[in-house]
Amino acid sequence: MKILHVDTGRGLRGGQHQLLMLLRGLKGRGHEQILLAQDEVLRQWPGHEVSATALWRASRQVDIVHAHSGRAHTLVAQFCWGKPIVVSRRVAFPLGQGLLSRWKYGRACKLLAVSEYVRRQLLAARIPDEKVCVVYDGVESSELSAARVTASAPLDRPLKVVTPRIDDILKPSALVGKACERIGAEFILSKDLKRDVPRGDIFAYLSESEGLGSAVLLAMAQRKPVVASRVGGLPELVIDERTGLLVDNTAESVAAALERFAGDRELAQRCIDTAFERVSSQFTGAIMVERTEAVYRSFVREPSAAE
Questions:
Q1: What angle do CA 247, 272, 233 make, to 5 degrees?
Q2: Fewer CB within 10 A of the end CB, N or C, for the chain?
Q3: Domain 141-282 class in CATH
Q4: 2-137+284-297 has which fold?
């Protein structure tokens, strides 16, 4: 099978990391792939810049087209004709109801919702149920293997609290900083979570709108207790008091959750262990790749050896 992947994200955020994991996984399964993306992704994987001409030419060479962002979806709907279109839907915003939105969603053969929450939003927008399925984000198996043999460190004072540094008004990381000030914790505002999560004691992830939260999966895989907002798809990962603690988006609520983990080591360890085992069994990169490939195969008939 030959797949065209299109992504218009300019940085390396959760969606781009998942795309790169998918590219590696599909290559390992023997599939040919063409990537059209922006600079940051192209530094990680060979491909070409997104353009109308590149889209039209590449779509002629492949069996299926996969759009990995909202703008990519719009461009693919315009310029990629005659091939099945798969679209990843990662955001928790309601769908637009204008003619253009209805047209481009009508062009998609399958929508891969990153969570049940996003799936419900698509269904509420009258997308047919048979066109929607959930494909959760995944974590690299190498990260899980390394963490499996690493004992969780005790939560010593002063706490070190890690949160991602994202230039997005819907990600109120400053509230984590205020919560840390309240309890005398060290605040680590990270632009490199793979580097910084291991040196922290607790991972905090606040959002006003969230499709799923792949950064939370990374922290769980690194065996860190998680504090997260009670919004969007986050409760599908952070089951309150079982795999982490859910909070309101206030400094008071975040500070209380941080203090609770610090004061109740048994709760923190139970959440760490349960979250890690859940990620290992349900949210791996291999599962994500397998489920995505299964969607492709439902639209692409590959010739048998006899043919």
A1: 45
A2: C
A3: alpha beta
A4: Rossmann fold (3.40.50)
